[in-house]
Design goal:
This protein is an alpha/beta fold. The chain is built from 20 helices and 14 strands. The protein folds into 2 domains: about 150 residues, Periplasmic binding protein-like II (D-Maltodextrin-Binding Protein, domain 2), CATH 3.40.190; about 230 residues, D-Maltodextrin-Binding Protein, domain 2 (3-Layer(aba) Sandwich). Helix 11 packs across helix 20. This is Extracellular solute-binding protein. Keywords: Signal. InterPro entries: Bact_solute-bd_prot1 (IPR050490), SBP (IPR006059).
């Protein structure tokens, strides 16, 4: 197996980001005053030790101010080093250089194993995890764990539901389908009547398709960093093939579209009534509204329902997206950094600001059990209590996924196979077989033992 340093070298960015090193935890000479000078926020207690943090939540300024106001023993120095990939590139550079990383870094859950495999993250099991364990579900903790270790403090997630247009459902006398068979039947009914596409199977969103695989009982990966580099890959199982063949059938029958999502073309179609449903996560209303959906002619036409199931007597809840705060190995005071990771964005005021402004769907049980959050009448859904009816049950029932250090390659490979399904050059089963071969070969090339 390749050493961890080899894995780091294989994924490192070549750019050196010296200007960021002043706010990193890896600078042994950095004082609290030096760090404070590089903060986006204002340090309230300049005598307290400082923990540096990279994060891109839109309300991070308020969240950090809340934390710093409430703590005399530690202060957070926050920098927005970019969202998603931009931040990851900078963090990867700091990991490869051995300096320049912050003490705490915001990571999406599926990115955690990649950095953990490079010894870039700290296991939080003995750094306050037990004190906050009950604040999150087992599924939330599984998403930020690698083997027996915990490498992130959960913040937000993406429990999934089926967003739909009430006007389309009313026109064609359809009720929200409870099963995937009912989903297909409804799609056929709408098509036969000359109506819009019932949904969209986007090649550029392999993460949500992966969630659909889990819903049918698939276990695409098994992985633990303590297993000597072993990765279990099961992408051609009957459970996977059933899901992909199902969607291949919908696309070939013209019941759903194949437009890439998060594009102007897709949003134009959503606004124009091209799609009757949108399978997405609890964060979708904020995204859609930000893109101009729900205004004018398509205002007050949206509602949401639980995801259709393969077996409604044994429903499986799934998730798309979610982020956490991880402590980096470059943090000089890991106990203090862990206190920040677990404590920031955990107070009632910050959580409420996050969910009230549709910035996050909180995973903290204090928020999930807050009557105001439970009973919220969501304007985008014309006053529907979507948290109570759909998203909180989905979050509470979610059992978690297993992520691996090769996750980003898997997503790229899966995108290619979904595109083949959509253009008719591969059946779902054929795509699953090809995906298995591709990802397994890559894992072996990277030095992993595939089981």
């Amino acid at each position: 197996m390749k050493t961890r340093s080899a894995l780091a070298a294989a994924t490192a960015s070549v750019a050196l980001l010296a200007p960021l090193s002043g706010c990193g935890g890896g600078d042994d000479d950095a004082s609290s005053a030096n760090k404070s000078a590089n903060c986006t926020n204002t340090i309230k207690n300049k005598q307290a030790p400082v923990v540096t943090m990279w994060a891109w939540y839109p309300n991070m300024q308020k969240v950090v101010d809340n934390f710093n106001t409430q703590h005399d023993d530690v202060q957070v120095c926050w920098t927005n080093a970019g969202a998603g990939g931009d931040e990851y590139d900078k963090f990867q550079t700091a990991v490869a250089a051995g300096k320049g990383a912050p003490d705490v870094v915001m990571l999406e859950a599926d990115r955690i194993p990649t950095f953990q495999a490079q010894d870039a993250l700290v296991d939080l099991k003995d750094l306050g995890y037990e004190d906050v364990k009950a604040n999150f579900s087992d599924g939330a903790w599984k998403d930020v764990s690698v083997g027996d270790g915990v490498y992130g403090a959960p913040v937000d997630g993406g429990p999934m539901g089926m967003i739909y247009r009430k006007d389309v459902f009313d026109k064609y006398k359809i009720t929200p389908p409870k099963t995937w068979d009912e989903y297909e039947a409804a799609a056929q009914k709408v098509k036969d009547a000359g109506g819009p596409l019932f949904g969209d199977f986007a090649a550029n969103q392999p993460a949500y398709v992966t969630a659909l695989l889990y819903q049918n009982g698939a276990e695409p990966f098994t992985y633990s960093s303590s297993d000597g580099g072993e990765i279990g890959i099961d992408l051609d199982s009957d459970e996977v093939k059933k899901v992909l063949d199902y969607w291949a059938g919908l696309t070939q029958k013209g019941l759903v579209g194949t437009q890439d999502q998060f594009t102007p073309e897709y949003i134009s179609g959503v606004i124009g009534g091209k799609y009757a449903t949108y399978l997405s996560a609890a964060w979708a209303p904020g995204y859609l509204q930000g893109a101009g959906v729900g205004e004018g002619a398509d205002a007050k036409v949206w509602a949401t329902a639980p995801m259709p199931q393969w077996d409604p007597s044994n429903p499986v809840q799934v998730n798309w997206g979610g982020s956490a705060f991880s402590v980096t190995e470059q943090a000089k005071d890991k106990d203090l950094a862990a206190k920040v990771a677990f404590g920031v964005y955990a107070d009632a005021e910050s959580l409420k600001d996050g969910w009230a402004n549709q910035i996050i769907f909180p995973l903290n049980v204090d928020a999930l059990n807050d009557p105001e959050f439970i009973n919220l009448k969501v304007p985008f859904f014309d006053g529907q209590q979507s948290n109570k009816e759909v998203y909180i049950p989905a979050a509470n029932g979610y059992q978690g996924m297993t992520y691996t250090p090769i996750g980003q390659y898997y997503y790229t490979a899966f995108t290619k196979q979904i595109a083949k399904i959509n253009d008719g050059s591969a059946t779902g089963s054929e795509a699953a077989d090809a995906l298995q071969q591709d990802v397994e070969g890559y894992a072996k090339d990277q030095g992993f033992t595939v089981k």
